[in-house]
Amino acid sequence: MFTFLDDMSLTIALVLFSMCAAVIGFVGTKLAGIVDEIADRTGLGEAIAGAVLLGMATSLSGIVVSVTAAWTGKPELAMSNALGGIAVQTLFLTIADIAHRRANLEHAAASLGNIIQAALLLCLLSLLLIGRFAPDWTIWHVHPVTPLLFIAYLFGLRLVKSSQQHPMWNPAKTHETREDEPDEASGKLSLVRLWLSFLGFAITIGAMGWLLEKSATVIAVETGLSQAAVGVLLTSVATSLPELVTTVAAVRRGALTLAVAGIIGGNAFDTLFAAVSDVAYREGSIYHVTPDHVMLWVAITVLMTGVLMLGLLQRQEQGPGRIGFESISIIGLYLAGIAILLMG
To answer: In angstroms, rounded to a whole number, what is the distance separating the alpha carbons of residues 106 and 120?
Structure first.
């Protein structure tokens, strides 16, 4: 039905790619306010709403890219898109840190929920490495690590929710700490309209992801770029635009916990890109056909997440240029990863 998309020229592919990225960016600007209000009106709280609603919705385009690529026999593109997305979204937190001029974002948005989500993300990334180096066993072409990823993710969300209801400790309050408090201005739209708007934006993002995969495949073939380079440098960045705009928008609204939770929670959800890609890939375990230079991004994102977690725990109030050591380190790690990819 859409076979013409496979035969488009490089110029059309570039135009389509740019248009999809623009639509994703525009829709992303609307999502932060919708999710923030849903969090206030339903009592979910910014940590859960950021991880589940904002994280999943903004990740839909990326998951469509990875699943479509895996289903059509392009595991390298599927995995590089997933892992590159986690890395670039972590990088986006440094932009949000710069946007929050009062103090270091990790200081102001410190919460038990965000720290638990960061620990969950480290566990999920570690499972990806176990899948890569464990024996190449599959059941109906699915590696045993894949269902473990889903189970660990759901268990982690339960821990986050439990920490909100019965916290065993809380970060010390300072004059720069911004707590998760409902916005008194909530209520302009009915709850039903809020949910419908959320679903409409989410579906749009998912549709753009499908078109992005089609254009990215043509770009890779016509330019000679590897699928890994296309995944890390193009599709992961384009499909992560909602995270960037929603994070900055949340910071501007003062919803700092939502901003950080949206990135960390979205990253945790993005590890499931690999799980669903393994299900979609019909030739065996996707972890074992993914090249080492792509799996290297698992190690890089583990390190970036560990540094971010240290920032949430250390809570440096002011750093050079008003950003903390974690933001400077994350920028350096991401650039180092790109350099390794291009030299490899």
So the answer is: 17
Q: Express each pLDDT in 35-92 by its tens digit.
A: 777 877 777 766 677 667 776 777 777 888 899 899 999 999 899 988 998 999 999 8
For 60, residues 6+ apart whose C-beta sits below 8 A from its C-beta are 202, 203, 205, 206, 209
Report, as an integer, the average pLDDT of 238-258: 75
Express each pLDDT in 103-127 by its tens digit: 566 656 667 777 888 899 999 999 9
Q: Residue 99: beta bridge partners?
A: none
Measured CA angle at 186 (ends 183, 187), to 5 deg: 160
Tokens representing residue 105 in the block: 């974002």
Question: Number of folded domains in the chain?
Answer: 1
What local confidence, expressed as pLDDT, does residue 320 receive? 45
Range of the domain at 237: 3-343
Helix 55-71 with 191-223: angle, nearest 10 deg: 40
The domain that holds 196 is classified in CATH as 1.20.1420.30
Would you say 139 and 128 are in contact if contact means Cβ atoms under 8 Å apart? no
CA distance 291 to 184: 51
Q: Which helix (H) or strand (E) holds 84?
A: helix 75-99
Q: Are 158 and 116 in contact (CB under 8 A)?
A: no
Q: Is the pTM of this model over 0.70?
A: yes
* CA atoms of 137 and 131, how far apart (whole Å): 10
Mean pLDDT in the chain? 81
Distances (CA, A) of 69 to 59, 62, 135, 234: 16, 11, 24, 14
Which residues pair with residue 142 across a beta bridge? 139
